């Protein structure tokens, strides 16, 4: 979040000059909103950060390779069953994700995922 004047960011506790008038370092803290408005100082909020669970600039070559659990199942039957469940859920998610046309659709798919299986 920052104050802006003529497209430039004003730094708190630092003096600045505008229209050949030198303003002291504490002017932004002590001035009223009306005084700031009078010379053209505006408040610019920080941009809202996108949800990192759904926005990412990386590449995934094989999303199924990311599903790997350190839990070792004791018997072959349990392990085989768990692997089949995880593969089925991953296949379902992969199909649903591929069909998404927007981020809201992706959010719906991810919120409906069976995370207990994964």
Features:
single chain, 118 residues, alpha+beta, rod-shaped
Structural description of this entry:
Strands 2-1-5 form a three-stranded antiparallel β-sheet. Helices cover 36% and strands 14% of the residues. It has two domains: 2-44, no CATH class; 63-111, no CATH class. It is rod-shaped, with a radius of gyration of 27 Å. With 118 residues, the protein is α+β, with helices and mostly antiparallel strands.
Topology:
Blueprint: E1 2-5, E2 8-10, E3 16-18, E4 21-23, H1 27-30, H2 33-39, E5 42-44, H3 76-98, H4 103-111
Antiparallel strand pairs: 1-2, 1-5, 3-4
What is the element string, with H for helices and E for strands?
A: EEEEHHEHH
Counting H and I runs of at least 4 residues, what is the number of helices? Answer: 4
User: What is the count of β-strands?
Assistant: 5
Helix fraction bin: 25-40%
Strand fraction equals 5-15%
The residue-averaged pLDDT reads 80
Order of strands, widest sheet: 2-1-5
Number of discrete domains: 2
What is the overall shape?
Answer: rod-shaped
Entry summary:
The protein has 118 residues and is of the alpha+beta class. It is built from four helices and five strands; from the N terminus they run ββββααβαα. The chain has a three-stranded antiparallel β-sheet. A two-stranded antiparallel ribbon has the order 3-4.
């Amino acid at each position: 979040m920052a104050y802006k004047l003529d497209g430039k960011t004003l730094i708190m506790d630092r003096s600045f000059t505008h229209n050949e008038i030198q303003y002291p370092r504490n002017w932004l803290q002590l001035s009223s909103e009306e005084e700031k408005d009078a010379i053209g100082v505006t408040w610019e909020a920080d941009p809202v950060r996108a949800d990192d669970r759904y926005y990412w600039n990386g590449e995934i070559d094989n999303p199924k390779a990311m599903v790997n659990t350190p839990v070792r199942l004791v018997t072959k039957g349990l392990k085989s069953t768990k692997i089949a469940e995880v593969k089925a859920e991953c296949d379902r998610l992969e199909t649903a994700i591929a069909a998404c046309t927007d981020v809201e659709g992706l959010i719906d798919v991810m919120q409906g995922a069976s995370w207990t299986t994964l």
